[in-house]
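User: Hi! I'm a student and our assignment asks us to look at how structure tokens line up with a sequence. Could you show me two examples?

Assistant: Happy to help. In each example below, the sequence comes first and the structure tokens follow. Example one:
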Amino acid sequence: MDTLDPLLHQPLRTQIAAFLAGAGEATFTELRQRLEVSDGNLESHLKKLIGAGYVSVRKHSGEGRPQSSYALTPLGREALQGYIAALQRLLPLDNAPVPAPASPLLRPRTQ
């Protein structure tokens, strides 16, 4: 039986990783608004993802306050793909193996 990644098995961390997989990069404010979570809750979960090497942070300044942008790392993308594949293999579909997804969510958006 597949083991689900305990770091990604927490719902908000799964949502953060999935959103970043599709968006490519997002600011703290974009993540907070899109996922509808508090600053403290988002910060706590981002720290865990950053600590595991799943998410990178880039600090930049421009007009106004400095901003932090977050992106899924190659390790994070691989972990998310593995997590999704493990979930799919748990689905009882004809007992046939489920191939890894070729989802556009798991490819970074090009600009």
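Example two works the same way, sequence first and then tokens:
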Amino acid sequence: MVSVQRHLAVLRSALQPEEQERLWIRAERAERGHSGALLLTDRRLLFSGLGFVDQSQEAWPLTVVSNVRVTPAGLELHVLGAPERFTGKAKDLQQLADLLPRAERTDDSVADELERLVRLRDSGALTPAEFEGAKRRLLQ
């Protein structure tokens, strides 16, 4: 089994030059059953996890994260309107939730969201890979 320190090393290697680490916690991506680590920076929320047959590595700009809350089922949030849920120690999940943006997403149309993603990419807030991943999730 891959240690959480290995996942954290992977996440830290993905940091951009001026990006500042704020907090990391052990977590499991609930729907996929991937155990690993969540890393919060001043710009993004990153996850690296390993399941029984596959792995996941995600990087979500904070500008596309919304509806953050901690419930008995874990940390729930939306990425471009799509739900994500993580489990872990309640104290760690709450600490992370307190640092994440609290904005509620409006019911923007897909076209509005795509325009927003293009603006974020063009401004440099999203890398081309992050843009493509966000666009793919939005269009699913």
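Here is something you could point out in your write-up. The helical segments are 4-13, 90-99, 110-123, 128-139.
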